[in-house]
């Protein structure tokens, strides 16, 4: 952790999770918890629960969960120190300076200065656009049908006719020449000294996901070259790891991100109400950008240009999205070239219809291949069918591959059996995919047993955190060792230790997990109350609680026995003792009154 646990607890205690989340989600109290629509996935019926007593949240739809720090980290994409600072400032808690090595401190100071100089440059360009000097840039943007509100939202600006103006302004603000150069805002020349490469251009500030200016793109006024000029790579600007407009798109909560090719496409989309639009930064779409998108959505809609270059770019991006585990669909822009032209010609409603009709990326790939093949020629048609089989092999999950195989066979008039033979033949040659197999009998039962084991451990953790007084009645029968799931065991260790001291703080327990997935699992373990309210459980709560307790204890015995090594004599001697403990627990009555 970056801060002492006592300080983290102080900040957590002074930031009521209901108050914090209410700033992002409309919550209504129902029963003991507050409920709202989950901000992490699309839903129409509230399944997002916030517990005031436990200071944790959990979505029963998508599984998101955590404490107040976890919420900010997930929603705002903050690091833990960033979330800590925001919540500390909100509560008026003074944070100590983090003790870091001189090298790290120097690097962070440099990053902060680079962000400062970029921010000042953005201000300079912004005011230039709105001055008489920027009239040419302002009129250009007006001709592109951008409103003043949209220009303000994206911080659009103008770089004047001289590359020396920006440098003079930044020097006047106290920034050193070397810093201005390192920020990618200017270059040295023997003839002119330090001058900016950005002049006579409409300027597009590039912001990271937390709205900090990290670079610029500039569109030349007139016929100069290059048409678009971007900042070079700097310590704060990596084109492969950022997306233009993502600072707005990540909070759109639309269930998808619309990926465009250019700045103006993104801006036009946002102005029309499609605030989930983003674009790569003058380079082809990258795996790093796909990984970034995966933090905010599972669904990406490609709104690339409809020309040959756009199709080629879409085909390349589809493969990257698939590798990243994202669902890709392609929006048809025809007869218009790009989203900007489409929006001006047909408007929002027509584009919404195109979104609904967006083509599955797999069938988009096949359609492009089909357009390039002479389907009347048997040889070309056979080759096309082989290409289908080749692309089917890219699906590593057998169920998914079989579903696409059936759909492709129906669409392209080839029998599923013949297409399957082509897939198996190609897979055998390349080792790219395993042969399709029927699920073995009993697999579902095994999965069900495993889930039942996890469920009982979750139920017990929730029950003890909901009714801490029960701990004194069961601690002689149960211990953290009986929780065989790693996350649940660690949660139980902390919970039992807290209960021994008369405390119960699930939020603090969740906060001790640094991994996001482990936080989610821990939050789920303390939020099974909705399931425990099941009528079958409520009819005889004492029997239900006793059954859960026995199930956890019995599973612990089975797990211990299965993982015992033959040479472990002491462990062997423990088995009869553990069996006896289960038998005694089965006979014991535990009152919930």
What is the secondary structure topology, with strand pairs?
Layout: H1 5-13, H2 17-22, E1 28-30, E2 33-36, E3 48-51, E4 56-59, E5 65-66, H3 68-76, H4 80-91, H5 102-129, H6 135-143, H7 148-153, E6 157-159, H8 164-172, H9 177-182, E7 187-189, E8 193-195, E9 201-207, E10 213-220, E11 228-230, H10 246-249, E12 257-260, H11 263-271, E13 277-279, H12 287-294, E14 299-302, H13 308-323, E15 327-330, H14 339-356, E16 359-360, H15 361-371, H16 378-392, H17 398-411, H18 416-430, H19 443-466, H20 471-474, H21 486-500, H22 506-511, H23 516-525, H24 529-532, H25 535-538, H26 541-562, H27 569-587
Helix pairs in contact: 3-4, 11-14, 15-16, 16-18, 19-21, 19-26, 26-27
Give the rounded overall mean pLDDT. Answer: 86
Poorly predicted regions are 433-447
**Alpha-carbon Rg, integer:** 30 Å
The end-to-end span amounts to 40 Å
Main sheet record: 5 strands, antiparallel
* Backbone shape: globular
Report the portion of residues in β strands: 5-15%
Q: How many helical elements?
A: 27
- Strand segment count: 16
Cross-sheet strand order for the largest sheet: 1-2-3-4-5
Helix-and-strand structural type: alpha+beta
Helical content class: 40-55%
Summarize the structure in short.
This protein has 593 residues and is of the alpha+beta class.
Commentary on this structure:
The chain has 593 residues and is α+β, with helices and mostly antiparallel strands. It has 27 helices and 16 strands. The strands form four sheets. It has a five-stranded antiparallel β-sheet. A five-stranded mixed β-sheet has the order 13-12-14-15-16, sandwiched between helices. The protein has a four-stranded antiparallel β-sheet with strand order 6-9-10-11, with helices on both faces. Helix 11 (263-271) links the parallel strand 12 and strand 13 (277-279). Helix 16 crosses helix 18 (416-430). The longest helix has 28 residues, at 102-129. It starts with a helix and ends in a 6-residue tail after the last helix. Residues 433-447 have low confidence and may be disordered.
């Amino acid at each position: 952790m970056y801060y002492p646990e006592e300080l983290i607890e102080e900040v957590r205690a002074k930031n009521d999770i209901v108050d914090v989340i209410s700033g992002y989600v409309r919550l209504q109290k129902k029963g003991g918890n507050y409920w709202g629509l989950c901000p992490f996935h699309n839903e129409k019926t509230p399944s997002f629960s916030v517990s005031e007593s436990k200071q944790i949240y959990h979505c029963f739809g998508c599984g998101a969960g955590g404490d107040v720090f976890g919420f900010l980290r997930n929603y705002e994409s903050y690091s833990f120190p960033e979330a800590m600072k925001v919540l500390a400032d909100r509560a008026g808690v003074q944070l100590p300076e983090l003790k870091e090595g001189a090298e790290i401190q120097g690097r962070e100071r440099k990053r902060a200065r680079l962000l400062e100089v970029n921010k000042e440059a953005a201000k300079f360009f912004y005011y230039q656009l709105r001055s008489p000097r920027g009239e040419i840039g302002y009129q250009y943007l007006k001709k592109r049908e951008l409103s003043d509100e949209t220009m303000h939202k994206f911080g659009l600006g103008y770089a004047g006719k001289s590359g020396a103006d920006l440098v003079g302004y930044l020097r006047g603000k106290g920034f050193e020449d070397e810093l201005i150069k390192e920020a990618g805002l200017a270059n040295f020349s023997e003839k002119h000294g330090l001058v900016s490469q950005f002049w006579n251009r409409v300027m597009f500030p590039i912001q990271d996901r937390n709205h900090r200016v990290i670079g610029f793109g500039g569109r030349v006024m007139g016929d100069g070259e290059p048409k678009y000029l971007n900042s070079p790579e700097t310590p704060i600007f990596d084109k492969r790891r950022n997306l233009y407009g993502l600072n707005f798109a990540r909070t759109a909560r639309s269930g998808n991100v619309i990926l465009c090719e250019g700045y103006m496409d993104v801006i036009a989309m946002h102005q029309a109400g499609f605030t989930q639009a983003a674009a790569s930064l003058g380079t082809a779409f990258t795996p790093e950008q796909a990984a970034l998108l995966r933090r905010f959505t599972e669904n990406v809609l490609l709104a690339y240009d409809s020309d040959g270059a756009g199709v080629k770019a879409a085909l390349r991006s589809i493969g990257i999205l698939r590798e990243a585990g994202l669902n890709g669909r392609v929006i048809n822009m025809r007869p218009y070239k790009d989203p900007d032209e489409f929006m001006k010609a047909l408007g929002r409603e027509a584009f919404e219809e195109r979104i609904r009709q967006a083509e599955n990326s797999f069938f988009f790939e096949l359609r492009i291949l089909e357009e390039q093949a002479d389907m009347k020629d048997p040889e070309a048609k056979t080759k096309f069918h082989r290409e289908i089989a080749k692309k089917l092999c890219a699906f590593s999950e057998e169920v998914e591959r079989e579903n696409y195989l059936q759909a492709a066979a129906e669409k392209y008039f080839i029998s599923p059996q013949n297409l399957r033979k082509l897939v198996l033949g190609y897979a055998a040659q390349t080792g790219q995919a395993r042969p399709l197999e029927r699920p073995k009998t009993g697999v579902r039962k095994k999965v069900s047993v495993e889930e039942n084991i996890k469920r009982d451990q979750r139920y017990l953790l929730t029950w003890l955190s909901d009714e801490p007084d029960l701990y004194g009645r069961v601690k002689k029968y149960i211990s953290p060792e009986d929780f065989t799931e790693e996350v649940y065991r660690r949660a139980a260790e902390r919970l039992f230790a807290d209960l021994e001291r008369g405390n119960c703080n699930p939020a603090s327990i969740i906060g001790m997990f640094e991994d996001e997935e482990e936080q989610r699992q821990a939050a789920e373990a303390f939020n099974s109350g909705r399931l425990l309210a099941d009528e079958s459980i409520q009819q005889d709560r004492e029997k239900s609680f006793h059954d859960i307790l026995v199930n956890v204890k019995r599973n612990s015995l089975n797990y211990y026995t299965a993982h015992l090594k033959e040479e472990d004599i002491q462990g062997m001697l423990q088995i009869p003792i553990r069996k006896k403990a289960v038998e005694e627990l089965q006979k014991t009555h535990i009152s919930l009154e």
